[in-house]
Write the structure tokens for this entry.
Amino acid sequence: MSDKLKIVFIGNSIINGFPYDRNQEFVSLYRNASGNEVINKGVNGDTVQGVMRRFAQDALAYKPDIVVMMIGTNEFIYKESLPEQCMKNIINLVELAQSHGIEPVLLTPLPVDPQMAKSRWMVCDDVDYEVVQEQIMELKKLINNYGQESHVKVIDTNYAFSEYVALVGEQTAYYDGIHPTREGHRFLAEIVGKCL
């Protein structure tokens, strides 16, 4: 009998590891360190709506022990959803996983660095990254409160990464103000490894 867990990570480009190769993102680093069977279902640019559309195929179909979700940045960049609606959809995903006997784990969305994002990411688009950051922080609070009230595991990667940025600086932590550097991914792998 194997003690290894089967874990699906699903979400956006931070799960996928943009802009790096798949073996350099925190999900693969966690897989290598833990020895668990880990499946990466991150999609660049994805939103909670996108994850909902593919959840049956990309999560439930694998019959994992755990599904780890990181969603809730692109919604705000694209102005598709507000934090409250995003949270309702995340709760639907959590309940869907639970109804299939899968333990859901929520990662809070990483903070953005508005100044760096404005100069390095989607520069031509009319995106107010200060507003995006405010919405991310609101969603983070909603996720943490929901986790406490509903006894759903939450790893506050937002808080942990904020502390990491304060320690090492934006240039070391961020590739473009939104996505972590390789060093940032190594840090996230450590946090997930300790908490999962």
Remarks:
- The two ends are 21 Å apart (CA to CA).
- Residues 82 and 160 are 23 Å apart (CA to CA).
